[in-house]
Fold these 2 entries.
Entry 1:
Amino acid sequence: MKALRYEGQNKVVFTELPVPVVSDGEVLVAVEVCGLCGSDILKIDSDLKGRDVPLGHEVAGRIELVGPGVKGFKVGDRVVVAHHVPCGDCHYCRKSSPSMCREFKQTNLDPGGFAEYVRVSARHVENVMFKLPTKVQYSQGALTEPLACVLRNIRRVDLREGDTAVVVGLGFIGLLTTLALMKKGVTVVGLDTDPARVKQASKLGLEHGYTGRENRTEAVISQLTTGRGADVLIVTAGPASLIPSRLTWVRDGGIVNLFAGFAKQPPAQLDLDQLYHREISVLTSYSPALEDLKEAHRMIVAGEVDLSPFTKSTFPLDGLDEALRQVRGRETVKAMIIPRKYGAAH
Ligand SMILES: [Zn+2]
Ligand SMILES: [Zn+2]
């Protein structure tokens, strides 16, 4: 089968790999769509040579083969599958930190979603694989995992109807967060330095979108919250150095929520005395729990979120370079790889 393989910093090769062999409880999925995640790009940008670096984890496809003993799934089923499975009974899992479970990151799809086929382990089949009805496109189903990341984050910071959140960064994760919050009845103030991103957010229904250059953000937040400040500041992108000055946007007792990595950035200096006296918490969320995957899948199947704005930029398996170029150049907010398509002139 054809697949993409990481071979070093900015070196991903389009190559031939053996189709994985499935054993007891496992299934083989023919991958129809796999989203390109920011974390894939981060890995591609990093020098991880010599390590096994699976790429692609936002997978939707069709079951090609089932191993002995598989229950509840059959050949031909349309499915989505996540890449990590927590063990469910270690200290981390019991303390609601399943994404910190030591088994979590060690589990993966074989060889990763940027391949014509993936082997799905028995633990994945039992815990993180869901059926996709024919009315839901594979490309929307493939966004189950990123939506689950967003839902888990919102759950962590306990945002509810009537609350106010500031979302910094209106890339894919910022937009998805904005959509999910609006669906919940949370008032969102969205910020992105790129006017095109703000415009896109407005098209998706964001009422209060700014580039920050208007110098109106603080006044708008104040007005929307009768002077209190936002319940949560959700940082999905942007320089870490700006976070300290944004504490004034957060209400007393509110939350600074880090929902992005800050690789290669110098540490930000937060005013700890202010955090203490104003009881502001710093909360982060890295990856979803099983309940969030279930909820994301339910919402997508029920058509409660329209993910179609994110599924339009598709690329063949040998078109990763172009996908990377468009994402890095902010020409597209989300790239979807079609692994079973390649070899065409593009
Ligand atoms: Zn991801
Ligand atoms: Zn665990």
Entry 2:
Amino acid sequence: MEYMSDLFYAMTMPGLETLAFSEIRAAIPETELVKFMRGIALFRTTTSAENLLDLRTTEDVFANLAHIKGLRRGQDALRVLHSATLNADLAGAIASWRRAHHGARPQTWRVVSQMSGTYDFRRVDAGQAVIDALRKTMPRGIRQVEDDADLEIWLWLGGGDVLIGLRLSDATMRHRPYKRDHIPASLRPTVAASMGWLSLPTAEDIVLDPLCGAGTILTERGLLAPYQQLLGGDLQEQAIKIARRNARSADVDATLKNWDARALPLEASSVTRIITNLPFGKQIGSREENEALYTALIQEFDRVMGPDGLMVSLTSEDRLWDRILQEHGWRTQKKVVFVVLGQPASIFVSGRA
Ligand SMILES: C[S@@+](CC[C@H](N)C(=O)[O-])C[C@H]1O[C@@H](n2cnc3c(N)ncnc32)[C@H](O)[C@@H]1O
């Protein structure tokens, strides 16, 4: 067990943890990886907690209270959870929370439990073991509540590994304040940011999202790093209106137009990056429609992409897109598979072969 107060962990969409850790390393170079788990990067850093809240590819960030390896399935595990919580450096974690919250004094606490894998005890009983310990160690004046607590202690049971941590982030880390309007099939901002990160951003980039929907990808790219130009468009007029509003409220300068991505009003070789979330599967079109659409799209992307351009594309039609890319002379350098709305999706990072 480890009870160090310089341990933190980031929760991500499952599959995006290594990518999120590369963002953490770039932001805070002295950070050391301790372990990857499913949807989690556990790391050690001496940075101040508030520096962890600006991460864009992470859904939530925690001060680690305990990391238990190889928890058994049986009832004795509850005693292990209880004593790990009793021994945790709660004061250190609360100090991190206060730094992350501009010195605020927490008034309330609660426990949130998440369990995957099979155990001989119930999730509520595991949560209760942690609650019982915290009732003994929580500073006076901070009271336990059912919902909306200042301090959220999350218990995460993921097979052999268990993490108990104090949540430093709040909902704004994953639900961006700029994104007030949604459209169907709109992308999670942390996924859009991950795609921006994978595009190896440079200040010279002319970035295109030809199927921009609510504009999440362009907005996140704009927030991630400097750029020369952000261009986007969509078939639906309504999507463009929403995309404009979102970009504007994030203070991102994007040029957005109503267009058909199969016939873009752009010059040949005029962009350096394409970052896009393709319509796929049941979400938007049928398989046959997707095949025809994807073929038309790659021809158009081929035309507008500059010589050393890089494309980051997301789809659940993994095999179809892989084949079409190859047939049109594109080479995929990297593929990141993750889970979105319960189904696997792949992010392709590709360039011309
Ligand atoms: C998967 S969604 C993109 C979602 C977007 N990334 C977001 O976060 O909101 C695909 C978008 O492609 C648009 N679309 C579909 N076919 C198109 C076409 N031929 N030209 C332009 N846009 C198209 C749809 O209107 C939809 O908004």
